[in-house]
Amino acid sequence: MTAVQKRILINKLALGFSTFSAVIALGFLFWILGVLMMKGIDALNWNIFIYEGSPPGYEDSGLKHALIGQLILVGLATLIGVPLGIMAGTYLSEYGKNSKLAHTIRDISDIMMSAPSIVIGAFVYAIIVMPMGHFSAWAGAIALAIIMIPIILRTTDDMLQLVPGTLREAAFALGAPKYKVIIDVVYRGAKAGILTGVLLGVARVAGETAPLLFTSFNDNFFTTDLNAAMPSLTVTMFNYAISPYDDWQQLGWAAAFILSMFILGLNIVGRLILLAGKRK
Amino acid sequence: MASIIDIKEECALQVRNFDFTYKGAPAPSLKKVTMPIAKHAVTALIGPSGCGKTTLLRAFNRMHDLYPGNKYEGEIEFEGRNILDPKEDLIHLRTKIGMIFQKPTAFPMSIFDNVAYGMRLQGIKNKTELNDRVEKALQDAALWKEVSDRLKNDANGLSGGQQQRLCIARAIAVEPEVLLFDEPTSALDPISTQGIEKLVIELKERVSIIIVTHNMQQAARVSDYTGFMYLGDLIELGHTEELFVTPKEKLTQEYITGKFG
Amino acid sequence: MIDKIFLNMTRTSALLILFIVAWIFVVLFNESTEAMQAFGLDFITKDEWAPNLDKFGAYAAIFGSVASTFLAMLLAIPIAIGVAIFLSEIAHDKIKGFFGVSVELLAAIPSVIYGMWGLFFFVPILRDIFGGMGIGLLAAGIVLAIMILPFMAAVTRDAMNTTPDILKESAYALGGTQWDVIKDVIIPYAKAGIIGSLILALGRAIGETMAVTFVMGNVHHTPNSIMDPTTSIPVTLANEFTEADSSLYFSSLFGLALTLLIMSFVVIAIAKFYFLRKVRKA
Questions:
Q1: N or C: chain B end with fewer CB closer than 10 Å?
Q2: Same domain for C79 and C21
Q3: What's residue A279's pLDDT?
């Protein structure tokens, strides 16, 4: 075998291995997705949206409590996290720029984006749950907001920096004060990007379980009391899945399916917005 | 009607009725190009951006095959065969027809390993042979004196002009028959450009050269033959001095006098 | 006037993130001092975790975290690199787009779902093959590997895609095969980015809770084999935080949280500042 023939053979083997590993990986991932679809759609019915949780064995048990709880927790986290994240990102892009402080903040939020979320839960437990003496929706929402802020901050920073400097100068040249320039010109130019960042940030925290385990804890009943423990899809899913009861496990899969569709939906919409923005 | 001169000497390549269509494009980017390429001479391709000169150049070593869906029609004859044949051995073809790019493309490895790369691909492992041929290639590329004491250094530490000469050394180390230059000086300063041009003229003793350039003065300085392309057609091919002094086609004249382009 | 207010609002928000991070460290440190004082270094070197005796040694949990992450990396890295090569160099445009987006979307699926799948579908298979409970270090490593795979493959592919086309073309122009170009040009060129991406994935894996909680066993016991049930830091936290009944127990759990935070901070910082920073400069 000549050297070139040998290289061609090695090439085929290596590319074969890569393709094979892609098939393996996607096989596993589609297996999981398939399980989620089958189990989830199987368990899906109207009762899920109408009834609250019940003890195992009851006909009319559902996930209404967890669905509403999830929306409240994520909604509250978004209300806290998004304005803070956008403002912080604005500071980095428009004021801090290349200063040492701005770089430090960028670095720290990069690290925070990958930091273990359960640790955030422990932190919020110590600063809110312990002093208050009980679990609460507030604690859960704050834990989620802390996870969300770095994501929003970094995308806002990146997206604002994409707005051309000449646009700012043009607005300044008309005599606009800086805050007006930022709000009227810079934000408008980066609208699609910021919106995408917000959607991806919401999607990311919506799937978090660990930081809620000991902050908003869980409840099997419908509640809107922000000062009490609040059920969420993720924690409910966890509790139901490790329970020994078939009907609870079914509900767990239904919750997994609904949540995944919600998160995938947010991701897809976020991408489409960004794509549409780019095409312009 | 195109005016293509007959080349009396031996030809390195013969392009006949060559059509090229990019993937998904409604019309061919090159239309019925017929063009002889003289052996051991420099042929320059000039024309405004988008005229197809780089597209034609990249057909000679079938670079377009890296991106699926492109379509060749017609014939390019090299060493007695049509290299557009789907069965053509591209690995072999590319060792025979080398290429230099718009920007220096030093690989992320040492200077020595860069030059030795093509030889190693061909299975040359003998240390003395590698050493000798690397030195020879670097000397031929007029780079030996500058780098002989730091062959083990990262090639990315060299200046742009040095890197481009390194790429030339790397290409000639595998002893190709033809070298394709795709605007080789567009990223270089005037002094480095001079060096590369000098090298091109020296190299034609051993290889046949095709050079794409957007710089007419450069074509005039280095080439023996010049082809003028426009909108996918080869408008005129002639001896360089004749084409620039007494062009046969009106379009050529307008282009070289700067009326468009 | 409004300008000043706006500046101050944005600056306060930006400083808030630094403040929160510092606060997290301070709180975790304060809360864990009781355990530190009670056990000293024994906290991380002993593996006796006996809440009824008020004895807390976190060695098993730390070992479990490291071992499951190591196992996950061992399994995921070659496959992720293979997937990344497939996505950046082999697949045709349409497949590339479809699989590329699929991989990114899969990275967004909540990790708790990977855990559920592991418990209900994968553990039984392990049980059939190896006997025993199926739950344990190996199950955790595999589920973790699968969970981290989409993220790892996506960032590795992005790192490989930074290689300029012209550089790849010049290797092809010398008669290189696709694999020659991948191993001699793309991987060396994108080396720092690839390693950084892999370590970043490691940083995520080490702090992952939900994918492994289901399948690890939560037994405070340093495993003798990869089939043994054991625990990890996040698994212990998830299972025991709401059950802790003494202040020393709580303090020990906070000690675990602090240990985990430091471990992942260091890993992520190495990835970001040592490897990925180089990429930005290039």
A1: N
A2: no
A3: 65
Alpha-carbon span C78 to C146, nearest angstrom: 12
Assess whether C275 and C249 both reside in one domain: yes
**Residue C260, token pair as written in the block:** 């985990």
Instruction: Determine the pLDDT at residue A143.
Output: 97
Does B245 score more than 70 pLDDT? yes
- The shortest C-alpha distance from B193 to chain A (Å) reads 34
A102-134 residue pLDDT tens: 999 999 999 999 899 999 999 999 999 999 999
What is the extent of the structural domain holding C22?
Answer: 2-34
Residue contact A112–C17, C-beta within 8 A: yes
Domain chopping of chain A, boundaries: 3-43, 50-279
Chain C residues within 8 A of A94 when measuring between CB atoms: 10
In sequence order, which residues have a C-beta less than 8 Å from that of residue C272 and are 6 or more positions away?
A107, A110, A111, C196, C200
Establish if B92 touches chain A: CB-CB under 8 angstroms: yes
Which chains are adjacent to chain B, needing at least 3 Cβ pairs under 8 Å? Answer: A, C
Cα–Cα distances in Å, from B166 out to A101, B105, B132, B159, C189?
43, 9, 16, 10, 18
- Give the tens place of pLDDT for each residue, A180-198: 899 889 999 899 999 999 9
| Overall number of domains in chain B | 1
CATH number of the domain to which B119 belongs: 3.40.50.300
Report how far Cα C18 is from the mean position of its chain's Cα atoms: 23
- Closest partner residue to C110 (CB to CB) among A101, A118, A207 is A207
C266 has a chain A CB within 8 A of its CB:
no
- Across C147-190, the runs of DSSP E, i.e. the strands, are none
At B63, is the secondary structure helix, strand, or coil?
helix
Q: Is A272 on the interface with C (CB under 8 A)?
A: no
Chains near C with 3+ CB pairs less than 8 A apart are A, B
Same domain, C93 and C133: yes
Rounded Cα distance between A122 and A128, Å, is: 10
Instruction: Give the domain A50-279 fold.
Output: MetI-like fold (1.10.3720)
In chain C, which residues have their Cβ closer than 8 Å to the Cβ of A87?
Answer: 9-10, 12-14
Phi, psi of A74 (to 5 degrees): -70, -40
What are the residue ranges in chain C where pLDDT is below 50? 280-282
- Number of domains forming the structure of chain C: 2
Residue A101 near residue A40 (C-beta atoms within 8 A)? no
